[in-house]
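Researcher: Next entry: ATP-dependent RNA helicase DeaD (Gynuella sunshinyii YC6258).
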Amino acid sequence: MTDSEHITSFADLQLSEPVMKALSAIGYESPSPIQSQTIPSLMSGRDLLGIAQTGTGKTAAFALPVLHNLDIQQVSPQALVLAPTRELAIQVAEAFQSYAHFIKGFHVLPIYGGQDMRVQLRALKRPVHVVVGTPGRVMDHLRKGSLDLSHLKTVVLDEADEMLRMGFIEDVEWILEHTPKERQVALFSATMPEPIRKVTANYLKDPVEVRVARESTTVAQIEQCHLMVQPNRKLDALTRVMEVEDFDAAIVFVRTKTATTELAEKLEARGFSSAALNGDMNQAQREKTIERLKKGKLDVAIATDVAARGLDVERISHVINYDIPYDSEAYVHRIGRTGRAGRSGKAILLITPREQRLLRTIEQHTRAPIPVMKLPTAEQLSEQRIKEFKDTVLAVVQDIDGTPDKDILVDLIMGLHQEHQIEPINIAAALGYIAQQGTPLLVGELSNDFIVQPRGRQDDRRDDRREKSGGKSGERKSRSLPDGMKVQKYRLDVGRRDGIRPGDIVGAIANEAGIESQFIGNIRLSENFSIVELPDGMPKEVFKQLKNVKVRNRPLNIRPWEDEKPSKSRHRAKKG
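Model: Predicted structure:
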C-alpha cells in the first residue's frame, strides 16, 4: 500500500489510465489529505472508517478507487453509495460521471424518492455499474427485486451521522444485511455518535481509520458573493456581472480545458478582451498570456484549476467561478488568485439550483456565509456606461494629441462643418453614437430572467431535520413559517407506536417530496397517527409524491385532517 505521507500528486496513487485522464481534464493535480490517506486503502480492498467534515474532498476519496477497481464488463451494480438526501445523491452521481468520463460504457444511476419509480425501474433493467441512492428508495427497489446487489463489491455510507439524524440508520442496517457478505464497506461521517460506532463494529471488518481535521480557510480580505442562475443562462449572467463590476482584470474558472477556449471566444464576441489559460498550452504560450494580463493588454483569463496554479498577477481584482468546483479546497485556491499580499479582491460564484448543496459545503468549509449578489438597477448600469464612455474619450484625447491622426480627423470634422453647416458638437455626438452602437449608454428596463430566486437555504432544512421530539407530547414546533402562509392539517398513519419522531417526518417529507422544511408547520404525534401542517393548496403533483413517502418503512398514507377546520393565516408572533 502506498505511504500517504509521500503522496504529492494523483500520479503517485497509480490510478487507472482513464481515471487519471479525467482528473487531468478536470484540473485535479494534488490529492487532498483525506484522498491521499483513503484512496490506497480502498484500492487494496480494505474496509474504511473516514472521519472528516464536508468539503474535504471525500467524494473523490471513495469514487476514484471504485472506478479504478471497476469491471466494465460486469453490467450489474458493483458499488452502492447511500446518501441522506436527494441533493447529495445527485451530486455524488454527477461526480462519478465526471471522473468516469473516459471509461467507455460506464453508467451511474441516482435513485431517490420524489422521482417516478417507473423511470428508475427502466434504468435498472439496463447496465448500471454504480448506484447512488437515498435509503428509502433503495429499500423500495430491494423489496421489488428490481435492484440486484449479488455482484456488489463496495458499499459507501456517505454522511452517516446525517442519515442517523434523519432517522435512516435502521434502514441503512437493513440494506447492509441485504448485501453480499464479502463486500467492502467505507463509512464517512463528520462525527461518531454511539449508533454510528455500532454500525462500524457490526458491519466493517478491521477497518482502516482516517481522521482529517478541517482547516480554517476564511480569506478575510476577499469579498465573496454568489448568484443562482438558470443552467442554460450562465453566459448571460456572466456578461451582466462583468459589465457591472468595476474590475481591473479578472480570472474566470471553469472545469474543463475545452470550456476555457469556448468561453474565451464567446466573451471576445461580446466585447471583452479574453483568452484561455489551460493545461494544453506549452510554457511559452502560458507565459505570453500571463504577460499580456500583467501589462493590461488582456483583461479576462478563462482558466482551469491546474493552469491557474501559482498565478500571481497584481491586476487581478476579481475571481469569477463560472463552474463551481466539486472540492471546497479548490474553491479556496481559486479565490486566492485575488486579494494577494494584503490587497482587496472580490470572488463571485455562479451556481445553478441543483448546485446549492455545493455552495453550502463551501460555506461550511470556509466557515463563512456567501451572500447573494445584488445586481444593479438600470439607472446604475447607465451611470456606469456613461462614466466608462467619458473615461475612454478623455484617454483618447490625450493619446492622439500631437499625432498626425488628430490633424486628419480635425480637418475632416471642420470640412463637414463648413460643407453641411453642421455644428462640431453635433458631429461629435454622431461619432459617439457610432461608437456606442450595440451598447446604448442609457439602459432601458433590465431583464433578470436568468436569475433563480432561492426557495430556502439548505442549512435551514438541515437544522429542521435535526430537531427531535420535545417532551412526552411528541410535538415539533416550527421555528418560522412565512408571514401570512395558510396551512392545511394532514393526518399520517404513523405514530409513536412506530418509533417515529417529528424529525423523521420532517426529513422524509423534505427529502422525498421536495417540500422545503420552512413550509412544514407543527407536527403532533399520537400513539397511532400524527398530524402535520403543510401549505394550503399544494399542487396535485406534490400531493401525489407525498402519497408514496415512507417513514421507517411505514407508508404515511397522507390525507386531509377532517376533524378540524384548516388553520387560518398565521403571523410569526403567534406561533410556537
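Model: Note for the record: The first helix runs from residue 17 to 26.
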